[in-house]
Amino acid sequence: MASNSVNAAADKPVVTRFAPSPTGFLHIGGARTALFNWLFARHFGGKALLRIEDTDRKRSTREAIDAILDGLSWLNLDWDEETVFQSERGSRHVEVAEKLLEAGHAYKCYATSEELEEMRAAQRAAKQPLRYDGRWRDRDPADAPLGAPFVIRLKTPNEGETVIEDAVQGRVTVRNSELDDYILLRADGSPTYMLAVVVDDHDMGVTHIIRGDDHLNNAFRQLPIIRAMDGIEGGWPDPVYAHIPLIHGNDGAKLSKRHGAMGVDAYRDELGILPEALFNYLLRLGWGHGDQEVFTREEAIEFFTLDGVGRSPSRFDMKKLLNMNGDYIRAADDARLAGLIAPKIGANADLELLTRAMPVLKTRARDVNELADGAAFLFKTRPLQMTEKAQALLTEEACSILAQISARLHSEQDWTSSALEANLKSHAEELGLGLGKLAQPLRAALTGQTTSPGIFDVLVLLGKEESLARIDAQATGAGN
Q: What distance in Å separates the CA atoms of residue 358 and residue 368, rounded to the nearest whole number?
């Protein structure tokens, strides 16, 4: 980990950016990158900016943009200033490329696709790295056929080395001979990603580039543009780079869908994760503050610096996320939870009843879907559909016990958990049975399942009339 000197520039306000490509959902790694950028800016009182890198017009979709914005909003990550769309800035990208060309930091390359393929084939045969060999770097453009198409390539330094003091990785050095002269403008005049991202970061005033370490090599390729433009326009300082290790599965392998590499929307809609739980879990994926595991948003902002980011890949553990989510469910507002699960239950869901039931229901649930499943018994219609295990409990002897329970409960005037518990315990003692012998068939009769909240809580939530109707249906065989 790096020292505090790279956490924030001393002479200007911190500006970070999150720059997703809208070619799919907001994946879990992207969400963590967004979170780290947002927290860093908030910690230092700076700006967190959002840029949509939609220059790949064939793969970028409005649906993907909406999914990214929706996911960020759900995580409650707000951004300063208007969202920047890279596709709208093409003229500025071209302007910078032309300035680099005019100043001699870039050149026109007329190599044909056939020539480049022959070059790569020769490199493969010689087991050399595949990179452009600079064949037009020092040639006169007049050598090219009249009207021949060309690309504009950056003239990267080819001697010495480039050193980056990365805020997470520490000092990283690359020999300049390993860099090739990559394309800035394609033959159709469109800018490449490598040019566009550098220009946009500068124009947006980004001081700290916090991103995955799969972009570390890009930093060495982007710095020559920055340094060349600083000589041309002035005011193009090197940003502080912070390359965060990627997220792996809990087995140490590259994160895949089987590990949990899904869109943020899937965590919400399919897995029933609360946004504050995912926020906290992503915060702890590769960052730490002592032994603390649970953070409020305010604490996360207060404590977050790049010093806490580790250099090793973090491991995504779905079980740990679900356990954390269960803790957040138990702490969540009951009315809010009722509102979340009502659509999952259907049109007959009663928000007032769900809210009353929540203190009982949420003690058992690890996600919103389990919460909805646990509440479903409240809204079942008679005759109840029984699970196979529940039906097996309703033997002839059990139905006889249910008939006796019904007779006692019909005369019960105090329909509270404590009174019902005292009544049924007394009945169990009279029969010489453990309370479980009564509770098991009673639970099956009331819920159609073998698992539920405490049986006395179930009775109270269903109410006297519905409880007795369900018990009687099974005791008399009408529920079969």
A: 11
